Amino acid sequence: MQTAKDLKEYRAELREALDNEFLRQAMDKFAVAYRGSRAKAFAGMDLKGLIADVAQAKDGAAQRMDELLSEFTAKAEAAGVKVHVARTALEANEIIAAIAKENGVKKIVKSKSMTAEEIHLNDHLEGQGYEVTETDLGEWIIQLRHEGPTHMVMPAIHLSRYQVADLFSEVTQQKQEVDIEKLVKVARRELRPKYVEADMGISGANVAVAETGSLGMITNEGNGRLVTTLPRVHVALVGLDKLTATLRDALRIIRVLPRNATGQAISSYVTWIKGCVECAPAPGGKKVHHIVFLDNGRRALARDPLFSQVLRCVRCGACANVCPVYRLVGGHKYGHIYIGAIGLILTYFFHGRDKAKNLVQNCINCGSCKDVCAAGIDLPLLIKEIHARIQDEEGHPVPSTLLAKVLKNRKLFHTLLRSAKLAQKPLASGGFIRHLPMIFSKEQNFRALPAIAPKAFRDLWPRIRPEVKGARLKVALFSGCVQDFVYPEQSVAAVNVVAGRGAALDFPMEQSCCGLPVMMMGEMAAARDVAQQNISALDPAKYDYILTLCASCASHLKHGYQKLLGNDPSWAVRAKQFADKVIDFSSFARDVLKLAPEDFRPGGGTATYHAPCHLCRGLGVIEAPRDLLRIAGVEYKPAEEEDVCCGFGGTFSIKFPELSAELLAKKLANAEATGAGTLVTDCPGCVMQLRGGLERKGSPMRVRHMAEILAQQIK
Amino acid sequence: MSESQPLSRLFEEKAKAVSAVVSTVTSLEQALAHAVDLCDKKDACQILVSGCELPLSATGEALCETKQQKILAAPGLEPKLFAKLKELAAERGILCIDTGMRQRLGGVDIAFTVADFGIAETGTLVFDSNSEEQRLATMIAEFHLAVLPVSKIREKSFDLEEELLALLQKSPSYTAFVTGASRTADIERVLALGVHGPLELHILLLED
Question: Which of A191, A359, B133, B185 has its CA 20 to 30 A from that of B91?
């Protein structure tokens, strides 16, 4: 639940969550275990193909939403069901309360439904005097505690067995032992009479199959079967996004959902219900069955060219399972009702800007959610887009407007960087700023910040530009701001590796910041503007490759530009041509330069690796850097969780230093545990974060960009 | 049935992976005997693994009073087979019923069923569950014992599409996929079986 009025209050809540020792340990254990069980569940399957199938089925259903609704309604009503369509949350609540009233209902049992949470159905029914009991164990626990879920599939994941034992002791008025097996049985016995007494059962549905008029429900506990069997009335509340055209599409979803949610091949129960089934206590022995379809903005979403993909979501919760920020702060702080990356987005559409405005800033843009999504939703992009829309609606904060203005004007931006170099002089030594100027808060002190280099790469370029005769390749170097102004030595190292290997390097001076920082801050207009400047500066038709040593820049140049400009007819083709030429340094060194062991000197020492988010997920480059280490004669010592974010995330680390510091601490602990002498990575942003953290810790471990390691070892 | 041989093995492997107990029988009569044996050997009232001595609230306690004898429920069984089962059960002092589940919501010991289909890659049983007695028996039983004819096993759910479509198109219809026992991991993600439904699922593969 979101109650924070502003970012300051939200950050205070985040700090509180960080101090919850149990939550932190539970989340860490879960994050690691989930990865293993998911991989096992999908072993030997064409995962990409499955995801594409789900995306296609759901996209098709969203486009034909009203047609499928009519088809479903005709089939279901022929089987005796009354189908309702609620335009809003209030309408749905009122329809369901009216059904309860007309059937003389007093007591209601519910199985788990996120859609019911979305519309605060229990509050509405309880307000009308009905007794409502959640029967899913986790939902029952949080209902008794009067709180919302912290995970879409495991709603009580934030609670310990001790808390549950205390709660159950209260409920039964008897002291209960702290033993999970027994506590589960206590719930079983306490809840059974609730089913017996209930007049009405409320369920959700995971799919509504238009071709048969059946609902499909995925459950593990079996409470869904009792809720839909014992009471004489059954009401199913179903989002319009749950409609699927065919049984085959529904089976596709069921094939992916449990595997992606919990690593189960299938849930214990999948229940298919159509029509008014046998029910002894109901009039005529036939169940009174209503289905309430909920619109609440879904029809409008279905028509939106960008956001319609939100309706693909099957509510597996995987985007939370892999999110490094969720892992730190838990679901109460990482969603309102819906949790995780999809929750950040749905909150804006279902619960409003006020609830979403802080949340959408708390995305580090590591791409883990997009990578794991069962339906291939581009979650980070949509989160950024909502952030931008909220700023457009509420006004842009000053720092973000300023950054946008500055970045749009390359010359001004570079002049500012050069004056920063002079201003920092009394504060800098050994490549770090020793005393943070007042504009930085103490919270930024968890890692040392680097000083601006004495000479920018662009100023060194005219002197070091290699002369290449008879080159087989023409390569444009895109340095990015950090390597241009903070770590020019990394670009110099790359020049030394590439020089003399048949590639003519060019460094077009008109290039500017890639624009990712302004996109992260929700400044879409500036992001587009800068993208156009760079495409003009590095004419894709002139080069065979556009090489960049920054994983974040590379991923933004390759994928982000097409998303920003792909719908603009005057830029789409160029953005595509540009994207096709972009290559990261490790892939270039391994696959284009084809560097081999004989190119290197022996004795490269030991190194571990940090996989930058935008390299391993953004560009899908996994093996190239590890191969290169071996090729360069470096002994590679793998670390735990190499592909988890280091906590930098550009402006994220400035906005949420407390989260950034925690992610960094984990990353460094894993790297140091390998005992390697050097920590290698492929992104200057990560270098900045990792090096700053190790410097602060006084660790002897060195951080090097891949280009520096290769330059050091090359013959 | 040489073709279904590897499928039944895959089914067995996957069902066991979700803690189902799988064995093989060669006739339905053998399955009946197995059911009575299982019921006879099983402890009475296992719902109470939290311990009868463990106090619950008054309503929780009251429900347990409803069950005084071992009960084997076999709704939907052919009359001839049901008569046979009843006879075998009576020899061991077990009550055998095929109706009246609503009067037994405190629990029965065993539900005996014959599955309509099996899905090998997930170890799933498929039941046409239109009968309320069938639905209830398989939920309130402490153990669910299901017979699955090997000839009814398919590899994937997609391979069963036509048959499923026929089931789902019936009006009304209630169709159930059952994979392993009722389970939860809602407290600290620790797996616990038998939260609302059966504590154990036993499957008898019938070589037909």
Answer: B133
Query: Could you tell me if B103 lies within 8 Å of chain A, comparing CB atoms?
Result: no
Cα-based angle B41, B47, B53 (whole degrees, multiple of 5): 105
Nearest to A37 by CA among B156, B199, B125, B185: B185
Q: What backbone torsions phi and psi does residue A434 show, to the nearest 5 degrees? A: -80, -35
A440: confidence class by pLDDT, cuts 50, 70, 90: low
Residue B75 sits at the chain A interface (C-beta within 8 Å): no
Query: Is B44 near chain A, with CB under 8 Å?
Result: no
Question: Is the peptide bond preceding residue B172 cis, with omega within 30 degrees of 0?
Answer: yes
A-chain residue closest to B184, CA distance: A221
| Fold equal for A64-299 and A597-713 | yes
**Between chains, do A225 and B47 touch, taking CB under 8 Å as contact?**
no
Chain A residue numbers with beta carbons less than 8 Å from the beta carbon of B194 are 184-185, 188
Look up residue A654 and give its two tokens: 């400035």
List chain A domain ranges. 1-41+317-387, 64-299, 597-713
CATH code that applies to domain A597-713 = 3.40.50.1860
State the residue range of the domain holding B70.
4-51+61-206
Non-local (6+) Cβ contacts of A419 within 8 A are: none
Instruction: Please tell me whether residue A636 adopts helix, strand or coil conformation.
Output: strand
Return d(Cα A487, Cα A510) in angstroms, integer. 19
| Backbone dihedral angles phi then psi of residue A131, each to the nearest 5 degrees | -90, 120
Q: Which amino acid is at A714?
A: I
**Residue A652 near residue A660, CB atoms below 8 Å:** yes
Domain count, chain B: 1
pLDDT band at B51 (very low <50, low <70, confident <90, very high): very low
pLDDT at A662 over 70: yes
The size of the A-B interface in CB pairs under 8 A is 225
Torsion angle of C-alpha atoms A15, A16, A21, A23, degrees rounded to 10: -100
CB contact under 8 A, A189 and B50: yes
Nearest-neighbour CA in chain B from A166: distance (Å): 13
CB A414 within 8 A of CB A513: no
CATH number of A64-299: 3.40.50.10420
pLDDT at B70 over 70: yes
How many angstroms separate the first and last alpha carbons of chain B?
8
DSSP bridge partners of A208: A215, A243
Chain center to CA of A622:
19
Q: What's the distance, Cα to Cα, between the start and end of chain A in Å?
A: 59
* Contact flag A155-B186 (C-beta cutoff 8 Å): yes
Q: How close B146 comes to chain A (CA, Å)?
A: 15
Helix, strand, coil content of chain A in percent (nearest 5): 55, 15, 30
Is B187 close to A159, i.e. CB distance below 8 A? yes
| A240, A249, A308, A582, A630 from A58: Cα distances, Å | 11, 8, 10, 32, 44
3-state secondary structure of A230: coil
Question: Looking at residues A645-673, what average pLDDT do you find?
Answer: 96
CA-closest candidate to residue A217, choices A225, A244, B138, A261 = A225
Distance of CA A583 to the CA centre of its chain: 24
DSSP strand pairing (B95-97 vs B71-73): parallel
Cα-Cα-Cα-Cα dihedral of B66, B71, B73, B74, to 10°? -160
Mean pLDDT, residues A82-103: 98
List, in order, residues 6 or more apart from A591 with CB less than 8 Å away: A624
Three-state DSSP class for residue A118: helix
Q: Report the CATH number at residue B128.
A: 3.40.50.10420
Q: Collect all residues with Cβ–Cβ distance below 8 Å to B33 and sequence separation of at least 6.
A: B88
Q: What angle do CA A155, A160, A161 make, to 5 degrees?
A: 110
Closest CB to A184 among B62, B106, B192? B192
Measure CB to CB from residue B55 to each of A79, A174, A212 and give the nearest one: A174
Any chain A CB within 8 A of the CB of B131? yes
